[in-house]
Amino acid sequence: MRLVIVTGMSGAGKSSALKMLEDAGYFCVDNLPIQLIFKFVQITFNGNEKFDKVALGVDIRSGQALEELDDILKEISKKGYHFEILYLDATDEVLVKRYKETRRIHPLSGGGRVEQGIETERKKLEFIKKKADIIIDTSHLLTRELKSQIDKIYTLNEKYNNFYITILSFGFKYGIPMDSDLVFDVRFLPNPFYDAELKPQTGNDRPVRDFVMSAPQAVEFLNKLYDMINFLIPNYIIEGKNQLVISIGCTGGKHRSVTLANELFERLKSLKYGIKVEHRDIDKDARR
């Protein structure tokens, strides 16, 4: 039997993950009292009704009883029951934004600030995050992208690496993305904007892509950027980082940055990390 304990930060997507696991054939139970978890595990492993796949949601709603979870997990392991821990996380900024958009109250903030509730929750969940087998940072994931990750891990049984890369193209005239870890400026490359035929197109179009990559400096830049990213990622992982936002900017975020972001994405796909490419400003000129 496969037992998955789903936990993590409030607002990071635990409820969505449980629904996705349920759709994948898991028997799901959410917010079971901590004191009943061991008995529940015994029943699912040894009961008359056989369960092949079970998911158990545990989070900060358990209150003070959450402090007992560590001992209960040790007891479960001691009895020979195997389980996996899936931990859903997101940055403080993203969590605050989600709470403000949904107008929900953080379970630990009471009448205070959401930020304070998030800080307290992180401290209380630190012990279980350290035990997690899988950590998924949902800060930059759409619901369908989270579903894809869940399906790969718990349906297709693919090996998952707890590191997610977002390659983001942008236009400097609209500002540098706030969540960038690395920022690269490709305004030194020839600009398709000044070609009447290429101007209305984007870096997603073949003519623009060919124009940008025909410049020798574009190829050299891409080669050196790939080598550097390939060097940095394992070192980031050693230091405990689980996500990386690589922002590539040009003037308007429509031609050069889009092309280089796409090219870098194609090269990094072979490294088998979670990865996606986004083009923040690609349509902004068209709306003006």
Plain-language structure description:
This protein is of the alpha/beta class. It has two domains: 2-154, Rossmann fold (3-Layer(aba) Sandwich); 164-287, no CATH class. It has nine helices and nine strands. The strands form two sheets. A five-stranded parallel beta sheet has the order 2-3-1-4-5, sandwiched between helices. Strands 7-8-6-9 form a four-stranded parallel beta sheet, with helices on one face. Strand 2 (27-30), helix 2 and strand 3 form a beta-alpha-beta unit. The termini are far apart. The model has no long low-confidence stretch (mean pLDDT 90).
Outline of this structure?
Keywords: ATP-binding, GTP-binding, Nucleotide-binding. With 288 residues, the chain is of the alpha/beta class. The chain has helices spanning 14-23, 37-46, 69-78, 92-102, 114-131, 143-154, 206-213, 216-238, 256-268, and strands at residues 2-8, 27-30, 53-57, 84-89, 134-137, 164-171, 182-185, 243-250, 274-279.
